[in-house]
């Protein structure tokens, strides 16, 4: 029985030969294949059982050469699976010439590749007769390397397009040759090609789109990323990796990992199974490297390496720490907010402005209410750190554990109730900025030692943690105590005192700069939005009083006057405690009687004892808020936190006894004697 005769008619002689050889290799045992081309010319009638053409255009042109009733089939072509794999390894957004022998076939091939899901490449048609394209270094060609322009650096030959399985099935069906043997031939062919069936094309497009999406994701991460397969050949290489290694993705994709990491300093990266946060020098930059191996069901499947520049890590850390400014860690005041024109205050402000330009530790000394925190804010805002965080912390009356957890932070699980994941301390949050430590004289020896380490080493360790965290901070400390005396009494570390006392500032009390009182009074009225003329008599009285609570007490006095006055404010409107203090002339003789200056405890503590004694005699319990209210009549303005600190010290000195439950706080015999001595 004679074999069916199939004639292939296409444009070029070369394509005619290639298609005939492919079909002969597959179905030559069942069908006789011949080929013709327009390039060689067709000059006789074609006798065939079936004619295969490369396009509908050629089908129309050859109709006059065919016997009536001859069937015509348009050949569908595709590419080999290995060729598709080559193209899929090219990086996202790669520009490449698609080079073929003529315009029509070139455009057909571009369309075919896009249909098969090669959508991550920008394919530019190129064929003989066109001018070279200068900004493209890669060419893709179906066995037409002779047509590739000379400026191309890399050529990817995807081989001749192959006849698609759908065309093979159509030919076999035409001649009723579809049987077990021919089916095996077709299935073997399908395994080597990318079939153009609609369902498969959709799957291939999905694969390509997934790869494209992954490429976009990798390009937006702030790390260089290199992925590699089980043969340690590079399969992914993002844009930042290009910048780090100064090598284009298309040059390294598919190449062995050790070629990219050939420098001796990088050899360990290619050979190590895993790397955790190690620093390597690459092209003049220090990078933190991590490497992870992928093990799938016990089988090595390649891995991924990430590279992050150290300065990028520092930038992110700084951004994180600066974000706390949104939470309120910002400086509020400048030197213009310090009211007064006295010589003492002016000299202090001048010195503070000079110290602001330095990065050394500043120690601010001054009585309660003199404006130590105001000065700290102003110093920060006049420094080079003004755009960075300003963190304030009052050390008074807090336990060691609370002070340390606030200042140094704590790690995950450091103690019962610790926040999951830990918490950064104020030193960390103040990174690149300023931390203001008020009432520094109240911290314990243990906390003093940890603070000394921060000043000396510029690093902290969280409570319960082991990691050393570097911090770049400027410390401003403040106290209303005489630290030098505390050092002499063994209550404050000498080495810490010398570390803190590098740039000392002493704020004069209000009694030493009474010339500033009129300016302050005017400011406080204006702050409340009230225009009020104070009589000369009243102003003189305000200047006679010695203001043991300093500027804070004066502000409270003005607030009192604003709230109780009707129209004209007179001396009769003053708070009773001020009027009483002025009558016996205490204001003219100094701040307090001489005996208070010789006390081993702060003078306000004696008055706290008096308040406690009054409550004790009335058999009433009394809280810190009530104590504060009672102290005002003696001219003291202390916060509840400050009162807590004074109570803690009185207990330590044996002047009071603090009991749990109903017993509450009681004055000891020593406390009774102290009150009697200074009554």
Low-confidence segments, ≥5 residues, pLDDT <50? 584-599
Shape: elongated
CATH architecture identity of the largest domain: 3-Layer(aba) Sandwich
Oligomer: single chain
* End-to-end CA span: 138 Å
Largest sheet: 5 strands, antiparallel
SS-based class: alpha/beta
Helical residues, percent: 40-55%
Total number of helices: 29
CATH homologous superfamily grouping of the largest domain: P-loop containing nucleotide triphosphate hydrolases
Averaged pLDDT, please?
Answer: 84
Strand content: 15-25%
**Would you report the number of β strands?**
26
Strand order of the largest sheet: 12-11-15-14-13
Top-tier CATH class of the largest domain:
Alpha Beta
Q: CATH topology of the largest domain, which one?
A: Rossmann fold
Query: How many domains is the backbone divided into?
Result: 5
The radius of gyration is: 44 Å
Keywords: ATP-binding, DNA-binding, Nucleotide-binding, Transcription, Transcription regulation
InterPro entries: AAA+_ATPase (IPR003593), AAA_lid_NorR (IPR058031), P-loop_NTPase (IPR027417), PAS-like_dom_sf (IPR035965), RNase_R_HTH_12 (IPR013668), Sigma_54_int (IPR002078), Sigma_54_int_dom_ATP-bd_1 (IPR025662), Sigma_54_int_dom_ATP-bd_2 (IPR025943)
Pfam families: AAA_lid_14 (PF25601), Sigma54_activat (PF00158), WHD_RNase_R (PF08461)
Domain Sigma-54 factor interaction: 338-563
Which key features would you list for this structure?
26 strands; 29 helices; 679 residues; five-stranded parallel sheet; Rossmann fold; Beta-Lactamase; transcription regulation; five-stranded antiparallel sheet; Sigma_54_int_dom_CS; alpha/beta
């Amino acid at each position: 029985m004679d074999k069916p005769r199939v004639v292939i008619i296409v444009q070029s002689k070369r394509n005619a030969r290639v298609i005939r050889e492919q079909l002969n290799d597959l179905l030559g045992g069942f069908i006789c294949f011949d080929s013709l081309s327009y390039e060689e010319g067709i000059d006789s009638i074609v006798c065939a059982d079936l004619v295969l053409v490369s396009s509908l255009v050629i089908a129309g042109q050859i109709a006059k050469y065919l016997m009536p009733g001859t069937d015509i089939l348009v050949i569908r072509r595709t590419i080999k699976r290995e060729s598709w794999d080559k193209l899929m390894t090219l990086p996202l957004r790669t520009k490449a010439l698609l080079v073929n022998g003529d315009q029509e076939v070139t455009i057909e091939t571009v369309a075919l590749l896009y249909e098969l899901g090669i959508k991550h490449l920008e394919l530019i048609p190129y064929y003989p007769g066109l001018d070279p394209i200068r900004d493209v270094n890669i060419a893709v060609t179906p066995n037409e390397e002779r047509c590739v322009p000379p400026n191309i650096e890399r050529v990817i030959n995807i081989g001749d397009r192959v006849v698609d399985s759908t065309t093979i099935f159509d030919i076999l069906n035409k001649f009723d040759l579809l049987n077990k043997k021919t089916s095996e031939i077709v299935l073997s062919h399908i395994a080597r090609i990318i079939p153009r069936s609609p369902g498969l094309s959709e799957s291939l497009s999905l694969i390509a789109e997934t790869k494209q999406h992954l490429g976009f994701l990798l390009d937006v991460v702030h790390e260089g990323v290199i992925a590699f397969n089980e043969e340690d050949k590079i399969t992914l290489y993002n844009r930042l990796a290009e910048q780090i290694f100064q090598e284009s993705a298309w040059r390294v994709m598919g190449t062995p990992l050790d070629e990219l990491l050939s420098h001796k300093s990088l050899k360990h990266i290619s050979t190590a199974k895993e790397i955790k946060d190690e620093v390597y020098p690459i092209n003049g930059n220090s990078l933190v490297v991590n490497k992870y191996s992928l093990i799938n069901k016990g089988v090595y499947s390649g891995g991924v390496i990430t590279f992050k520049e150290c300065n990028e890590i520092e930038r992110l850390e700084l951004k994180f720490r600066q974000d706390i400014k949104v939470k309120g860690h910002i400086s509020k005041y400048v030197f213009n907010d310090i009211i007064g024109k006295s010589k003492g205050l002016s000299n202090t402000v001048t010195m503070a402005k000079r110290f602001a330009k330095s990065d050394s530790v500043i120690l601010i000394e001054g009585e309660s209410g003199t404006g130590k925190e105001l000065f700290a804010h102003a110093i920060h805002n006049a420094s080079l750190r003004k755009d960075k965080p300003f963190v304030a912390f009052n050390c008074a009356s807090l336990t060691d554990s609370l002070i340390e957890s606030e200042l140094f932070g704590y790690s995950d699980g450091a103690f019962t109730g610790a926040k999951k994941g830990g918490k950064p301390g104020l030193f960390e949050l103040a990174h690149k900025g300023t931390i203001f430590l008020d009432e520094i004289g109240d911290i314990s020896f243990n906390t003093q030692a940890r603070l000394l380490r921060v000043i000396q080493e510029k690093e902290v360790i969280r409570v319960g943690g082991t990691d050393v965290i570097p911090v770049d901070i400027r410390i401003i400390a403040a106290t209303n105590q005489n630290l030098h005396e505390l050092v002499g009494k063994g209550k404050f570390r000498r080495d810490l005192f010398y570390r803190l006392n590098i740039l000392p500032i002493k704020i004069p009390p209000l009694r030493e700069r009474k010339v500033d009182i009129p300016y302050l009074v005017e400011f406080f009225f204006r702050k409340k939005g009230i225009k009020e003329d104070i009589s000369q008599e009243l102003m003189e009285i305000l200047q006679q009083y010695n203001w043991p609570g300093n500027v804070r007490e004066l502000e409270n006095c003005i607030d009192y006057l604003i709230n109780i006055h009707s129209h004209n404010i007179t001396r009769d409107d003053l708070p009773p405690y001020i009027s009483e203090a002025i009558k016996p002339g205490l204001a003219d003789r100094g701040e307090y009687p001489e005996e208070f200056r010789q006390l081993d405890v702060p003078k306000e503590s004696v008055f706290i004892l008096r308040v406690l004694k009054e409550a004790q005699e009335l058999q009433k319990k009394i809280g810190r808020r009530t104590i504060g209210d009672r102290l005002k009549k003696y001219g003291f303005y202390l916060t509840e936190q400050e009162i807590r600190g004074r109570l803690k010290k009185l207990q330590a000195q044996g002047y009071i006894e603090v009991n749990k439950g109903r017993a509450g706080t009681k004055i000891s015999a020593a406390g009774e004697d102290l009150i009697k001595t200074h009554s």
